[in-house]
Write a structure and sequence with these properties.
The chain is mostly helical. 64% of the residues lie in helices and 0% in strands. The protein has five helices and no strands.
């Protein structure tokens, strides 16, 4: 391989790298990173937002509260548990020595 062929190959490699569609996104300030990714990424529509589980936990908490209020208002029992039993368990003081012993046994 002579020098001119090596230069041509190098120029071809540089040109492919320059005009390649699969280029990596350049470094962007974190403040503008999300905007840049949303504008210039091809698969931005395919990506799901990577949110946490806050809304799922919020819905579960609201459902539990609604069930508790329903149980309290209608004096209903579910699995032999009524609203006063739930309140009693919430207000019950835990024995810290028993908890420490249980952890030591594990």
């Amino acid at each position: 391989m002579n020098d001119s062929e090596m230069r041509r190959r190098e120029l071809l490699r540089q040109t492919r790298r320059l005009y390649d569609d699969k280029r990596e996104i350049p470094a962007v300030h974190p403040r503008y990173g999300r905007i840049y990714h949303n504008l210039y990424e091809d698969n931005a529509e395919e990506q799901e937002p990577s949110g946490g589980t806050f809304y799922i936990r919020l819905v579960i908490g609201i459902l539990c509260f609604v069930c508790f209020v329903y149980m309290d208002q209608s004096k209903a029992e579910i699995a032999q548990v009524n609203s006063t039993a739930i309140v009693d368990q919430i207000e019950k003081d835990m024995d810290t020595d028993a908890i420490v012993e249980a952890w030591k046994k594990l």
